Amino acid sequence: MSDPTREPTPTDAPVLTPAPETPRHARDVIFGSQQGRIQERLNDLDPDLGRYIQEFAYDTVYDRPGLDLKSKELIACALLVSLGSPPELRTHIRGAMNAGATEAEVRGALMMCVPYLGFPRTVAAFEVLRQHLNR
To answer: What's the whole-model pTM score?
Structure first.
């Protein structure tokens, strides 16, 4: 029972917990300040294509739990090396670093491509990394 004549003490104060932060989409981290430009480029190619990429690839697949974003981006880099897609690789090297990957981790992911994909694609990938680092 509470005593109505008692002065409130600091322990009587309500505990305020901060509001949960609105989760950011993976694309916000990956693309950073380039997000608008990238989405505009995709929409210019085809508005449906741009929407499908945003809604499915990023807002569905990339936002799934199970792997942290840095790991997802390092995997994406290796997959893009396998596809021989330098423009997209450039975006995802930047995205991996935006998600917390170090240069050494990106280099490690690219180096894993040598035994599976060969030297030509891996050398091309390291050139994309070099260009990114020297910008």
So the answer is: 0.79
